[in-house]
Amino acid sequence: MEEIKDGSKSLIDQSLESMIKDQVEAEKNLSTLRDALSDIASTNPIILLIDELDRCRPDFAVMMLETIKHVFDVDNVQIILITNAEQLKATIKHSYGSETDSHSYLYKFFKYQINLPTTNKDEENRSVSNNVTYFRRVIQDSNVISQEFKENKLIYQIPLFIDISTLSLRNIEQVIRCIETLIVFEDKEKSQSYVIEQVLMVFLSFLYT
């Protein structure tokens, strides 16, 4: 029995020793990285772009925020985080609890926030949602959707009457895939009004998404 205890103690000691060595090595690597960044940034400012952190697992996203602050807090090194701020705040609450002041937590990492415009001007100088513009572009780029379908002006009116402001660009792409699927399985020979069917395809695809 004593031999088992001694053996277990030895394994635990070895594991702890290995973990400590790994931690020391990791700290050395981080220090080396920071020194290298500092050397480069002393003559050439560095700008790092980080995109879609809000789409990562909550625990990973929070860990990355902490790592970014710890590792890249170097003179002349700037971080630009492109993200859905509200989604990232929800991620912080998920990790630390609903009572957490996610706004204060998030902005201890960043000095400025710039909100990108959600609308743009169309050919007639009308203000149009970016989602509507993206929908039109992806429709036009599709290899499945026929030219006849693309030239049906009515299908581009549907997003103007449905609130799609909350949809992400990936949601828009999902709508297009749904439309493409309906097109593949449609029966044109039994169609009474193909133009109306096209409109219904688009409308139902938005509802499904």
Percent of sequence in beta strands: 5-15%
Kindly name the structural category. mainly alpha
- Strand-and-helix sequence, N→C? HEHEHHEEHHHHH
Low confidence ranges: 2-9
Measured on Cα atoms, how large is the radius of gyration?
27 Å
| Portion of residues within helices | 55-70%
Strand order of the largest sheet: 1-2
Average residue-wise pLDDT? 78
Note the overall shape. elongated
Major sheet size, sense and barrel closure:
2 strands, parallel
Give a count of the beta strands, DSSP E runs of length 2 or more: 4
> How many angstroms does the end-to-end distance come to?
63 Å
Number of domains: 2
Q: Number of helix segments?
A: 9
Structure, explained:
This protein is mainly alpha-helical and 209 residues long. It folds into 2 domains: 2-106, no CATH class; 119-208, no CATH class. The chain is 59% helix and 9% strand. The protein has 9 helices and 4 strands, in the order H-E-H-E-H-H-E-E-H-H-H-H-H. It has helices at 2-41, 58-71, 85-96, 102-106, 130-141, 147-150, 158-161, 169-185, 194-208; strands at residues 46-51, 77-82, 119-121, 127-129. The strands form 2 sheets. A two-stranded parallel ribbon has the order 1-2. Strands 3-4 form a two-stranded antiparallel sheet. Helix 2 (58-71) links the parallel strand 1 (46-51) and strand 2. Helix 2 crosses helix 3, helix 5 runs parallel beside helix 8 (169-185) and helix 8 (169-185) packs across helix 9 (194-208). The longest helix is centred in the N-terminal third of the chain and has 40 residues, at 2-41. The protein is elongated, with a radius of gyration of 27 Å. The model is unreliable at 2-9 (pLDDT under 50).
